[in-house]
Amino acid sequence: MNKTRRLISEYFDKYTVTEIDKYIDLGGFSGLKKALKEGPDFVIDSIQKAELRGRGGAAFPCFKKWTSAKNRPEPVKYVLVNADEGEPGTFKDRDLLAKDPYRIIEGLIIAGYTTGAKEGYIYIREEYDDIRRQMNEAIALAKSRNFLGNNILGTDFSFSIKAYTGAGAYVCGENTALIESMHGNVGRPRVKTPRVGERGLFDKPTMVNNVETYACVAAIMNHGWEAYANQGLNGHKGTKMISLCGNIMRPGVYEVPFGITVKEIIEEIGGGTRDLSLGKFIQSGGASCALIPYTHFDTPYTYDDFKKKGFDIGSGSIVVANGNVRVVDYLSSVSGFFEHESCGKCTPCREGTKRMHEIIDDLCLNRASDQQVNRLFEIADSMMDSSLCGLGQTAPTATLSAFKHFKEEIMESVTK
Amino acid sequence: MVKLTINNTPVEVPKSYSVLEACREAGFDVPTLCFMKEINEVGACRVCLVEIEGEKRLEASCVTPVKDGMVVKTNTKRVRDRVRTNVELLLENHNRECTTCPRSRNCELLNLAETLGIEELQFQGAKRERYYDDFSHSIVRDSSKCILCGKCVSTCKKVQGIGILGFQNRGYNSNVGPAFQAKMSDTDCVFCGQCVNVCPVGALTEKQDMHRVWDAIEDPEKYVVVQTAPAVRAALGEEFGNEIGTRTTGKMAAALRRLGFNNVFDTNFAADLTIMEEGHELLHRIQNNGVLPMITSCSPGWIRYCEFNHHDFLPNLSSCKSPHQMFGALVKTYYADKIKVDPKKMFVVSVMPCISKKTEAARPEMEQEHLRDVDAVITTRELAKMIKQAGINFNHLPDESFDKIMGEYTGAGVIFGATGGVMEAAIRTVADVLTGEDLETIEYHAVRGTDDIKEATIHVAGLDINVAVVHGTKPAGQLLELVRKGEKNYHFIEVMGCPGGCVNGGGQPQVPQKIRDTVDLKVERAKALYEEDQLMTLRKSHKNEEVKKLYDEFLGKPNSHKAHHLLHTHYTKRFK
Amino acid sequence: MEVNKERVEEILEQYDFRQDALVPILMDTQNLCDDHYVEEETQRYIARRLNLTYVDIYEVSSFFSAINKAPKGKYHIQLCDSSVCRINKKDIIEEYLEDVLGIRVGETTADKMFTLEHTPCFGACDISPAIRINKKVYGHLTIQKVKQLLAELRGAKDE
Fold first, then answer.
1. Distance CA B507, CA B474 (A)
2. CATH code 3.40.30.10 region(s) in chain C
3. Does residue B49 carry a pLDDT above 80?
4. pLDDT of A194
5. Which residue of B176, B228, C65, C76 is surrounded by the most CB atoms within 10 Å?
6. Which CATH superfamily is domain C75-158 in?
7. Alpha helices in B470-544 (DSSP H)
8. CB atoms A337 and C121 under 8 Å
């Protein structure tokens, strides 16, 4: 009956940050111990067998990134937690950091050990400032127990962690922009070569993963890859942390097995919409992802099933909208968000996000013309095809999907 | 070498090439707005888009390295459509008062729009907040025309090492300007104008003074004297379709005469005079344990840079005014007296390759007896506009010469316009003075060329004089640091604020980036000056007969009391 | 607000005068200010101490939205304006706040007590509609709750 899982979130609400011993008693840091005992190759082998895919959105096989980080010849490298969770409707990293901080620390230490990095950073968005403070407390406690510091647990591996605060810029979720801001520069993405894996933080090779990825690694090392892979489906092993919100009875962070349907998530986990309707559409994965109309609510929640239909798991957010929500109004908030967050470096994104928002606002006021709608498509094409980074490339996705699924409704707003 | 295919044409290029460079080498023109090799490789404007087989999205060719086997297309409907949309987006947020924009004749955005056939913009949404700053004497900044390419930002920071301009705000509200929205005149901007030269549109332009010159010419009460800096003749022709590096000295003199100036003179006269004053100042410093190294003071951009950034070197600066200021001071005294015209009625116009000269001419100390040394400074660009406004067919003009007395100059004066020129001119004279001979060696190639820092030791009359030449404020700062640390010991340093010297000054004709990418303006324009030098019979400043006469009849000797009063100045510590 | 230079020095020292720590330095300095704003003079001071140009610091301080561009009221109210809070009728809260404070979004009350602004999602969607007041999050908002909240803040003022 209960569709949620407790693999990554197993320790949620079971200890507070000061209670590091409780974390240890629950089984915490056993993954680290195993890693230190078995060696880096064992870690990579485990995440490969667990078929862990990166949780930052792109969902690439994790072991590839970890292997290439490990193989970098440079003596100094870094591992970094991207906790700049900025997608509207997303807050699962917030819970992962707040409710089980040691697991993230454990995952990061394992990453440092595996790749040969001696320093790790946790880049936490400004909005989670309380969590950063708590994280610093956890880091200090972990150090006092020699899970951090010199010669960790009697090995010759030494590692330290610093928590770093963002300053309110969604674009810093993009890795190069994130690193620019950690250099004290403006968070504008740089042209894509070299990748941060080659030259990242302080110009050293840097492996960046999402918060949840580190949590998964800790779980895999703790319970073994089999336990992890037993969850979910083939090709989609394990579980996914989701942020469920919007018009829903029980909003919150949930851990779900891959393969569950959208409908099950809404109705059985979320308790249905507040007006007891089916819901009109959801936006899954963040502002940069497609709208999913209710006619597709039977889609299984997997990367592949979603991708086939042009949907996205992305950040793991699911924003539920019911029949009261006009599609154009929803799009206005999405396009307004991108206008606000565009860094302004490249033409199509800087100018395009503004014009898209203007046209959508005209649609909201029922005064947009056919020509404006055509213009909207031209601009969207250029943004997707020629923007410098992912922000501009994906900013039009929601709007285009809305035109695909709710064209009739939207066109009612066009002046004849 | 890497083999790739561009528009079905096989191409082989070096591995280090970008796709843009490969395209150009293969004969395909890919438009750019933000690209400047090694200076601004940011991939921001997104108009150099190309389709690369296997890539999901279009790529900015300027920042995409070539790869073996790459298949590139530059001219597909998809590329054309996206480039067009991006240019339209720029235009929608651009102040399109093209008819009254000083850059419309050679605006890179307008040219691109025309090439793409953008004849209509259907929509007009909001426009970004406008910042308009015309408070300085040199630069006008109009953010409503800025396309945020960042070339000025990179040039100021990376080329000149100053960093007055930066990006600010973000997204749609992005803007380029000085920190805290300060006026340019309230910053440590040196007004070199290198930003103006690279601006593809009319967002950064010089403060125009043409109208004041027209008014003066028109005024029957005024006696208007014009002088032209050496570098102007090496570039003015470009404005009339001549090749870069075409020397137009004679036509320029003819044009100035036809514009209605009462006298057409040459700043070169004052350049020769500067050598007399500066050369003797140097000798005096060497022989009397004065402050060394002595550093030249002809470049007002450099002076301002030093005044803001290197207070400890202010005593090292030669006290000589820059040549056109000396010239102005003499026109209103020596020359006015000669032709019996009331100096109050005289109006001195300087045609300069420089916009910093406009700020220099306005410095409070640049006057005597309440008469400004120079009344108006116009750039090479402004002069070209005046010639066009007057309907003068420049290319068909006869070659004429400058007027007598203050139009007389030597080859040493001409080369003042290129980096190393002041130094070479000074050596020509100092060597003769020290040996008491008329030396046959005239050309000193060690100080020529466009290396950042050039050094030479001149052995003359038992003395070893160590000299250095540096151009551009960034290398100048680096050189001063070496001197400060004691790693370098010089007697004399020539500094010009602009890379390449005055030939590449901020008031020179603006050349489209596409050409700047392939032609070294500094080198080509300098050639014209060295060519003129070679053609002159007299090539040493102290051989200038009119300068000699000036000393005999008026100043006495170099560095005399009178010379000091009229031709020398002082400097001010300025704070950022 | 003008900040005591000694306090700024403490912050700078804490970060070893590292240029790459510019963002946290500015954030920490802003936290010292009652008006949540690091004024130009202080920014220039920080730039000089870190050996950065004014352009460097202004580029950063004008870019990040958590670094304020103008002084704010004592209580800086940031109302989430993203999709989830819109779905959950943040409009009602917004209207009430505008009404009771007598200002529009983007403005500060005449007594400099309150500034009301929009902000993108700050990750409190499970308790939407939500606001942040001086960075503290308040969720599940109703008019009643906002009323109470404002009363408490005003009460604190009287103390």
1. 19
2. 75-158
3. yes
4. 79
5. B228
6. Glutaredoxin (3.40.30.10)
7. 473-484, 513-516, 521-535
8. yes
Of all residues in chain A, the one with the smallest CA distance to C123 is A91
Q: Which of B357, B454, B522, B543 is catalytic?
A: B357
For residue B447, the SS3 value is: helix
User: In CATH, what number is assigned to the domain containing residue B77?
Assistant: 3.10.20.740
Q: Phi and psi (nearest 5°) for B34?
A: -105, -10
Give the domain extent around A151. 20-229
Asked if residue A255 and residue A387 are part of one domain, the reply reads: no
The pLDDT, as a whole number, for residue B422 is: 96
Chains B, C: CB contacts within 8 A come to 36
- Cα separation, B409 vs B400, whole angstroms: 15
Tokens of C122: 């700050």
CATH number, domain containing residue A246: 3.10.20.600
Nearest CA in chain B to C47: B179
* Whether the predicted pLDDT of A192 surpasses 70: no
What digits encode the pLDDT tens for the residues A38-94? Answer: 999 999 999 999 999 999 877 899 999 999 999 999 999 999 999 999 999 999 999
CA pair distance B240, B388, nearest whole angstrom: 9
Taking alpha carbons only, the member of A370, A327, A371, A336 closest to residue A354 is A336
Residue of C nearest to B164 (CA): C55
Catalytic option among B62, B298, B320, B354 = B298
Per residue in B424-434, pLDDT tens?
999 999 999 99
Facing C58 at nearest CB: one of B157, B168, B576: B168
Residue to substitute from B170, B180, B309, interface C, most C β-carbons within 10 A = B180
Residue A177 with chain C: CB contacts under 8 Å: none
Which of these three, A272, A304, A321, is where a domain ends? A321
Mean pLDDT within A7-28: 96
What proportions of chain A, in percent to the nearest 5, are helix, strand and coil?
50, 15, 35
